[in-house]
Structures are given as structure tokens and as C-alpha cells.
Amino acid sequence: MRAVEQALIVGADGSEESLEAVDWAVGEAGRRGVPLRIVYASAWQRYEGHKPSFGVHRSPAHVFADHIVAQAVERAHRRAPAVKVSSDVVAEDPVTVLVRESATGSTVVVGSRGRGGLASLLLGSVSLSVAAHAPSPVIVVRGGEENRDGGFREVVVGIDEARAAGAAVAFAVRAAEARGAVLRAVHAWRCPAHEVPDVPRAGDAKDSHQMRAEAELDEALRAAVRDGTAAVSAPSVHKHAVEGHARAALLAASATADLLVVGARRRKGHVGMQLGAVNHAVLHHAACPVAVVAHT
């Protein structure tokens, strides 16, 4: 029996950021060969969910919602005519709707800020909340046009602990393969202050930390292959063990990346994930789209 295609979900609200998310999502749906589902949700408008209609007896809320959805659908069709596109309008909180949709979708895509976001915020509250609570991977579309359009042919995955990074690595490998891009695996390490000698010398503590960091990268990539979740081709993988803060290393790598993939720990006893300082840093400041994938 053929597996049911899981649609890619994208949230749209008419903002420029959400339209950029639609552009990115339809391109991703085409690369994966899956349908695209465009969802508009608004808790502050009394509007019952329905398929967009064009009758004459419609409230201003109906007209506005239909316009938002029609604009997004038309834009998606124009960019990728071969991709199957569906849409829906729901009178609920956007976070609630997108998190619920993520349970049956392959991935949720959102813009960095929505129509209601404050210009002073680097990342909208809806985007951050969806990234923290959706069971599926969430991609926040941000960064420059070249990064969003795949101009660098590089996917970066940040690796913290090898034993927990399997899902993020597998997601990154598939993304790189779909783009014909190289995969750069980044692991940052820091030498504890008490281990750093006053006078640098060959063979000091830094060497052992560098070796452990490189071993962590190797193990993370091997684990993905061993678990059958990814196929890693050595020539297409660049491994970088970087001394310093993880957030600095990943933000630097994002400058020449088409996608940055990071893992996140699930909250114990709670729905959703625990987004740490590194997750927040890349979601707010990365120069390319960011995918958040729950640790295995």
C-alpha cells in the first residue's frame, strides 16, 4: 500500500514575512514531492472555517480572510505550478492551529514575523511558540534572498550531543540531498578556563578537547547511518569542530547556508520542546532559514 503523502504546512497572514514563507515552502514541497497546505488562522476575527468563497453576502472579515488565502495560493501556483496546493481558514489562535496541523503534516513553515508582530521584535511570538510546541519539525524562514533561494548550496546542522542528534542529522541530510547541496556538521567546544595554561604549548588541553569534538561529530554522523535514518556520503559532508560558543559558530555558518538545522530537547512531562539559549539565538539572528527538530 502506498504511504499517504504528508503535506508541508505553511502559515500565512498576508504579511511580507509570511509571503516569503509561502515562497520558500512551495519550493520545499516541490523538492520533496509533497502537497502544500496553506493555513490562515485568526482568533480575533469572528470567522468560521470554510473553503474560500466569492459570494456577495460576505462580512469584511470574510473578504479579508479570502483575500489573504487567495493571494498566497496564487503566489504558490505561480512559483511552482506542479505542486498540489490546498488551503484553509480557521477562526482560532494561529499557534493552536499550526501546532495541531503539525501532528499530521511533515513540517510546519512560518515566517519570522507576522502581521501582528512588533517591528522591534526580531522573531514573532507565533513563530517562536510554534517552534517550541509543534511535534513535527518547524522551519522559520528568515535571512537574505540568496540564503532563502538556495544560492549557497549548503545545509548546516548543529550538533550538541551525538547520542541525541540523530533526528536533526537525518533531517539535514535529506535537506542537503534534495538540494544537491553539501552538508556542514558543526560542533562547538570550549576549553574550561582552569585547563588553559598561562603560556600556550604544544600538546596542551586544547588538543584533547578538539579531538573529542571531532569524535562527537563522527559519532553523530555514524549514528544516523546506523539507525537507518540517513545516508551520508563522505565527500559531501564537511565536519567542523570549532572552539568557542555554539551560538557564535552557528550564526557564522548561517551566513553562507541555505538552511540551518538545530535540535531541541523535549520538555519532560510537558507538550513541546525546551528551546535553549542557542535555539533562541539562531531563531532570532540566523542569516538563513532555521529548522528546529526534536531530539530523538
At a glance:
This protein has 296 residues and is of the alpha/beta class.
What does this structure look like?
The chain is an alpha/beta fold. It has helices spanning 16-32, 60-79, 94-102, 125-133, 145-148, 166-179, 205-226, 246-254, 277-285, and strands spanning 8-11, 36-41, 85-90, 107-111, 138-141, 154-158, 182-189, 237-243, 259-266, 273-274, 290-294. The protein folds into two domains: 8-141, Rossmann fold (3-Layer(aba) Sandwich); 147-294, Rossmann fold, CATH 3.40.50. Strands 1, 2, 3, 4, 5, 6, 7, 8, 9, 10 and 11 form an eleven-stranded mixed sheet that branches. The longest helix is centred in the C-terminal third of the chain and has 22 residues, at 205-226. It is elongated.
Q: From the alpha-carbon coordinates, what is the Rg to the nearest angstrom?
A: 21 Å
Q: Report the portion of residues in β strands.
A: 15-25%
Contiguous low-pLDDT stretches (5 residues minimum) are: 44-54, 117-121
Overall structural domain count: 2
